């Protein structure tokens, strides 16, 4: 009989067998039911989403996934891993008595849609909405229990109205370091006006022009525009944040070269919150690795600010954590971009300048210009890497070491960055490896000021490398009125800091690696800034009544791009070409005037900095969020002192981008009294990645994985051998498997079970389509245990289950329930599988209580089949809000435990004893056992060691 005939005969014999076709029918029907019934609607305590007060009175649980970006290519099976996991967890939480808020929106602004628009002429809104519709269809097919009333997209004007509103709250705020919080800028203005706060420069506030006042406030505002070094990418026609530049100095998207350039850009003063961003990590339930990444990115360090005089009017300020080594500073290095370079460079080389310092250039100006161009072609990461060849050039200027009075040469070099400290360093080559290598390359002197703990001596010129230590004593560190010789590092640092402070040439200070957040993009497809400029170039915020400021329709979406290697270019934004939109007449409260709109747009991070708040109150047109609703879902409570989302699941790749930015926005909104939660996400969980095999031909090009054949452990495509490697899943690698394919072949419940059963959620794992069938068979066996495949009738009985079944059931309930609560979905599935196998082997119809609890047990993981079986069992309600089964402790413990009895370390008996037996009872049983009595043969007993219930060790006299 052919395979087709065999399958047809089986279908005829079992017309009600659980198949892919049946799964598709069941899943579509229940998805329609859930939508029509509003099954997943989470009631707010108040407002237009308020529901049953009894439901809202339950303990709440706010569960979130990281925002998906709506890709035009749709989902592959790796994408839903986190979404399925949070859905399983949310379902279990509902069944254990929680009011669960679980929804999903779309982070829909950004470069990919804009690039697609440029390539195809399709408006980015059209392509983005089409991509969202496709993803919604795919996600719905997975049976995800989202409250769809709350879904949002960052491109909706009613959403980005509030993104713009938050920007204005930040723009109109300043950070009060004394109060350690943000305050409205109007309070700062009032303090300048009444004289309670001195105006920088000493002039009266009333004496300043409007432009001068704007400049003063710009130094305080939490959102400000400034001319600053930026990462300019000509190939993309836009500026990039440091985090968007790869380690080899290229754009993360498109792989174009990135150069340093100076442009006027919007920034967020995130550095004002550096201490709080570090300190508040202690209150969060986040992976230690993510906390460490954030701490390292913020980079808090304590040291001193020191001024090195160059001329009567100019001084180089450095930040150092080793002010105790000032006597060892024999040269200085500025970042090539440092603004002081242009001021201090002389017209000609000083007499006696070493040839190696000049780089062969005729003048300092020529040397500096050439080196600046060289450094601009490197990324910050490249510049910080330990390159074998140290590069730099002498500026022609000298600075005075403030403790020794010595004149030390000033260089520029690419290993010093404007993005850290002051953009200048005092070089102590004897005790810093990079400075040592630079000093060797440029024949600069080295002075040992920290006593080595080996036999190398104190003549640093003879060393092979620098010596660094916090444990050693100071040497060669005495001047006219200060000596550090013989002091330890800690004591020497304190003494030097006091000395610098007394003389007004330095002070103790704290520095951070974190830089202010570059917030401008030269793109069309992003949130417009709610900022206009008057005829004097002063920035003004739009009033709330003019929000949202919507994106205008344009014919050309592309920023002007240039040859990728052309660093001598600057941005031209798509919005700047729309003159009718850019130039406007507005009444901002002082009559109609002409203004020019900001033509940059916000980065795609803006919309995801606050989306958790919009989920709470998505239809509120009057407020960012109702305070009572925000307090209910995100306010502080026991164990959550800073409040936030109860569980946030997403990839670890966002550790120092989205997560840091969102924390900053939350803190500003908290300081200004708009929300009660100082942190956005209390518990963070990073899921692993689903990987897939990539097959490459002899050229190294990927070939379609679905077309590869395996023969005798080797792999072939179109008859030619190919190499297999494990990598990401994706369209470009030709190894993507879509969830639609698996749902069609096996059903969504099977896909859900397989992804959750592949391994621990936080570990990456390889996809294997052939293994999916294992979970499909589990569902078939579960169906068969309750439904007659020939008649479709339920086969359960009203008989009492036997004790073995009760023990198997309650152990599964106890184990799987704890696993689901702890996000251990793979082990929960294993325990349910074990129970189902027990019931299958036992044979005969299931007792009704067993069947019902089995269905409820698997409901969070496979909700469609659970709903169908629940209805077949005679219930008219949904399993979604049914109580999760509760284990009976009497059946969870083992009925009997095997106790091993040893004499002189050798097993002499095995006893079956109750698991709760006491030490005394167990000792009596062991000593009374016939085998033990015979083995002792009348010998006395020196000692009995009892470890109830599993071990008795007898030591004869």
Compact overview of the structure:
The protein has 957 residues and is of the alpha+beta class. A hairpin with a 5-residue loop joins strand 16 and strand 17 (539-541).
Would you mind describing this structure in some detail?
The chain is an alpha+beta fold. Among the domains are: 165-169 and 178-272 and 517-597, no CATH class; 300-512, Valyl/Leucyl/Isoleucyl-tRNA synthetase, editing domain (Isoleucyl-tRNA Synthetase, domain 2), CATH 3.90.740.10; 690-891, Isoleucyl-tRNA Synthetase, Domain 1 (Orthogonal Bundle), CATH 1.10.730; 894-956, Roll (Ubiquitin-like (UB roll)). 33% of the residues lie in helices and 17% in strands. It contains 31 helices and 31 strands. Strands 22, 23, 24, 25, 26 and 27 form a six-stranded mixed sheet that branches. A four-stranded parallel sheet has the order 2-1-20-21, sandwiched between helices. A four-stranded antiparallel sheet has the order 6-5-7-15. A hairpin with a 4-residue loop joins strand 5 and strand 6 (238-240). The radius of gyration is 35 Å and the shape is globular. The mean pLDDT is 93.
């Amino acid at each position: 009989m052919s395979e087709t005939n065999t399958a047809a005969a089986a279908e005829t014999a079992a017309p009600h067998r659980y198949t892919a076709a049946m799964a598709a029918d069941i899943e579509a029907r229940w998805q329609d039911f859930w939508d029509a019934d509003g099954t997943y609607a989470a009631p707010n305590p108040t407002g237009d989403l308020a529901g049953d007060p009894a439901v809202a009175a339950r303990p709440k649980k706010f569960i979130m996934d990281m925002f998906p970006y709506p890709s035009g290519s749709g989902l592959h099976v790796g994408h839903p891993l986190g979404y399925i996991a949070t859905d399983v967890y949310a379902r279990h939480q509902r069944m254990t008595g929680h009011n669960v808020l679980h929804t999903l929106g779309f982070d829909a602004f950004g470069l990919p849609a804009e690039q697609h628009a440029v390539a195809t002429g399709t408006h980015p809104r059209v392509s983005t909405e089409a991509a969202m519709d496709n993803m919604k269809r795919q996600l719905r097919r997975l049976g995800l229990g989202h409250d769809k009333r709350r879904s949002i997209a960052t491109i909706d004007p009613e959403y980005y109205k509030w993104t713009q509103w938050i920007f204005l709250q930040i723009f109109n705020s300043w950070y009060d370091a004394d109060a350690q919080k943000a305050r409205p800028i109007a309070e700062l203005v009032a303090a300048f006006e009444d004289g309670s706060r001195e105006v920088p420069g000493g002039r009266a506030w009333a004496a300043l022009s409007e432009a001068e006042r704007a400049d003063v406030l710009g130094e305080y505002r939490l959102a400000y525009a400034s001319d600053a070094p930026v990462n300019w990418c000509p190939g993309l026609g836009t500026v990039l944040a440091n985090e968007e530049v790869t380690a080899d100095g290229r754009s993360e998207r498109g792989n174009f070269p990135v150069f340093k350039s100076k442009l006027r850009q919007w920034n967020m003063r995130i550095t004002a919150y550096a201490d709080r961003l570090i300190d508040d990590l202690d209150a969060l339930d986040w992976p230690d690795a993510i906390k460490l990444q954030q701490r390292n990115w913020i980079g808090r360090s304590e040291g001193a600010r020191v001024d090195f005089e160059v001329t009567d009017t100019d001084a180089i300020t450095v930040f150092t954590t080793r002010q105790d080594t000032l006597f060892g500073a024999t040269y200085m290095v500025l970042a090539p971009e440092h603004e002081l370079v242009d001021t201090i460079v002389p017209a000609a080389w000083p007499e006696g300048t070493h040839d190696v310092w000049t780089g062969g250039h005729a003048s300092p100006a020529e040397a500096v210009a050439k080196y600046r161009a060289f450094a601009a072609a490197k990324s910050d990461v490249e510049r910080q890497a330990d390159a074998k060849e140290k590069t730099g050039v002498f500026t022609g200027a000298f600075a005075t070491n403030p403790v020794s009075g010595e004149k030390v040469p000033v260089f520029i070099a690419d290993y010093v960055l404007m993005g850290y400290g002051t953009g200048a360093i005092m070089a102590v080559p004897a005790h810093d490896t990079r400075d040592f290598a630079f000093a060797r390359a440029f024949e600069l002197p080295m002075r040992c000021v920290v006593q080595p703990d080996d036999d190398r001596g104190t003549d640093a010129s003879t060393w092979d490398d620098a010596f660094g230590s916090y444990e050693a004593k100071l040497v060669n560190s005495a001047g006219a009125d200060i000596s550090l010789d013989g002091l330890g590092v800690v004591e020497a640092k304190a003494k030097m800091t006091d000395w610098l402070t007394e003389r007004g040439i330095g002070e103790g200070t704290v520095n951070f690696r974190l830089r202010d957040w570059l917030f401008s993009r030269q793109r069309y497809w992003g949130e417009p800034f709610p900022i206009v400029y008057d005829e004097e170039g002063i920035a003004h915020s739009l009033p709330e009544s003019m929000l949202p400021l919507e994106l205008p329709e344009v014919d050309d979406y592309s920023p002007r791009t240039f040859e990728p290697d052309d660093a001598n270019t600057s941005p031209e934004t798509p919005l700047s070409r729309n003159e009718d939109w850019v130039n406007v007449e507005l009444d901002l409260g002082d009559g109609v005037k002409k203004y020019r709109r900001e033509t940059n747009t916000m980065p795609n991070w803006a919309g995801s900095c606050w989306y958790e708040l919009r989920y709470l109150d998505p239809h509120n047109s009057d407020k960012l969020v109702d305070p009572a609703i925000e307090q209910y879902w995100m306010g502080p409570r026991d164990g959550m002192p800073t409040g936030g989302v109860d569980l946030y699941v997403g990839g670890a790749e966002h550790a120092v981008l989205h997560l840091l930015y969102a924390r900053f926005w939350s803190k500003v909104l908290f300081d200004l009294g708009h929300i009660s939660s100082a942190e956005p996400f209390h518990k963070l969980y990073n899921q692993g990645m689903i990987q897939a095999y990539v097959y490459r031909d002899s050229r190294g090009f990927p070939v379609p994985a679905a077309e590869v054949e395996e023969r005798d452990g080797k792999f072939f495509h179109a008859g030619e051998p190919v190499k297999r490697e494990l990598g990401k899943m994706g369209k470009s690698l030709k190894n993507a498997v879509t969830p639609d394919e698996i749902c069609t072949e096996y059903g969504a419940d099977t896909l859900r079970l397989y992804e959750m059963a592949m391994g621990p959620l936080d570990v990456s794992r390889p996809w294997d389509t052939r293994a999916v069938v294992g979970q499909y068979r589990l569902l078939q066996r579960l169906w068969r245990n309750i439904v007659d495949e020939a008649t479709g009738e339920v086969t359960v009985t009203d008989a009492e289950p036997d004790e073995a079944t009760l023990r198997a059931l309650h152990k599964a309930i106890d184990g799987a329930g704890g696993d689901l609560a702890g996000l251990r979905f793979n082990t929960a599935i294993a325990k349910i599988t074990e129970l189902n196998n027990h019931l299958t082997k036992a044979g005969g119809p299931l007792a009704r209580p067993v069947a019902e609890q089995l269905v409820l047990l698997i409901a969070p993981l496979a909700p469609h089949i659970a709903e169908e079986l629940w209805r077949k069992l005679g219930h008219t309600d949904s399993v979604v809000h049914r109580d999760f089964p509760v284990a009976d402790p009497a059946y969870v413990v083992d009925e009997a435990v095997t106790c091993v009895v040893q004499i002189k370390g050798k097993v002499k008996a095995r006893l079956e004893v109750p698991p709760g037996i006491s030490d005394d009872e167990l000792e009596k049983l062991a000593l009374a056992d016939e085998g033990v009595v015979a083995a002792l043969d009348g010998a006395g007993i020196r000692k009995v060691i009892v470890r109830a219930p599993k071990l008795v060790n007898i030591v004869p006299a």
